[in-house]
Amino acid sequence: MASLTHVSMWSEAEHEWRKITASEAAKLYPEGTVSAHSGLFVCELCGQYVILTDGRKNVRYFKHNAYDTFKDCPERTTGLSTSVGYIAGEHELPIRLSNITSSDFELELGLLYIPASILQMQKQQQVIIQPLGVSEKPYIYSFERLNSESITYVSVGALPAYKYEITSSDELRRFWPRFVNGVDGFGSIFDQKTAKKMVDGAEVQVGKVYYLLCSKHLNQNYPSIEVRRLCEKKMPYGTWYIYEVQATDFKKDAARFFWNFRCRLTETPVFLQPVWPIYVETPYAIRYRANQLFMHIR
Asked: What distance in Å separates the CA atoms of residue 109 and residue 96, rounded to the nearest whole number?
């Protein structure tokens, strides 16, 4: 039986989640099944605790718990041997919070800059954005609304949607994907300074304040997390909350808190620096003229 390949275990010595294989875990826990309820091993892709089998019939391996409420983990739905490649039309676009008050907020989606020469060639001189899973009409924006040399943020309503569908011509797919992931039903983390939603796997830091947008009242069960409620928005189908959350110490409970929302708590964030060729960097885009781009990764 193939083992899950994206599993981590908390390291007390290094104060972070460290990748671990089933064979390494078996040396630490040589006897019996290690249940998901132990909280020892966590799937890096979906954030749920996983099982280490006992090895009586097969070599010991990691597997998901059959009773997990969330069953959309990529290794669960596409299989363990599926390769992942880059598809130009499947990147993310930024989503941010705006007009936050004690009882209301709105959401905006950022459309990447497209050269005017490309836009002028399109028969349909508009872009349509449809929030999915909520009772919102589509938002239609003329190309005249777009900024000429920078990203354009447009309103996508006041109801958090799990996904947004963008209708435009095929020629624009490398700039604007067909679908953009929205707000997770369990909750999504936003950077406080920019109010932008953090993508899955984003890194967060101790002492830095973030927004948490979620549809459930947040209980303070994490000693190393400070929580302050900013907004409580009542809607016909429920209530949404915005909290300010901050890790006060680099401990397991704080790391687990952010892992629940698919973010990684770290003391040393990954840093990417383009090296060659000469380039021009703008938000969400690096422009250069060459077949390859060399980058330094810290």
From this structure: 7
